[in-house]
Amino acid sequence: QIKREKTENIPDLKYLVKEKFTALESKNSDSDLQRNEKYIYFKDQLKEMRKQCNENETIEQIDEDIAVTQSQMNFICPITQVEMKRPVRNKICGHTYEEDAILKIIQTRKQQKKKVRCPKIGCSHADVKGSDLVPDEALKRAIDSQNKQ
Predict the structure, then answer these.
(1) pLDDT digits 0-9 by tens, 131-146
(2) Domain containing 96: what range?
(3) Using one digit for the tens of pLDDT, what is the confidence trace for 40-84?
(4) In the chain, what is the greatest distance between 2 CA atoms, to the nearest angstrom?
(5) Are 92 and 141 part of one and the same domain?
(6) What sequence ranges are listed for the domain SP-RING-type (predicted)?
(7) How many CA atoms lie within 13 A of 15 on its CB side?
(8) From CA 127, how far away is CA 114, in angstroms rounded?
(9) Domains in the chain, number
(10) Would you say the pTM of this structure is higher than 0.70?
(11) DSSP letters along 60-71, please?
């Protein structure tokens, strides 16, 4: 259409594009968007990124907390009474132990067909399992940092 018109008769392209865009946009609905494959993929990626960011913020917050309270922290295993080298945290009660020591106790008690009580004095958790233990990376970093000083 523009090629056929004389230079002085060229329509306002910006207006025509906006008009066409508005017409196309009015045909879209939210339900179309919710079913759009690319939109769903994008939302999933955002959720995953948000989860990772929250984890990173949590790790940073833990590191900050450790820096503030490092001098007050107890790096001694409640089982071995020695500074921990590979600390693991119990997801149920939150207490930490030296990995080898707690796993040895769990194995021994399992052979005796008995449950393992949390070795931290005063803790009421009476069924410690190997699957409840996770490496406590923040505590390990704090111990390593303390030892470097």
Answers:
(1) 999 999 888 888 888 8
(2) 87-147
(3) 888 888 888 877 776 656 666 666 555 555 444 578 898 998 899
(4) 97
(5) yes
(6) 62-148
(7) 3
(8) 9
(9) 2
(10) no
(11) HHHHHHHHHHGG
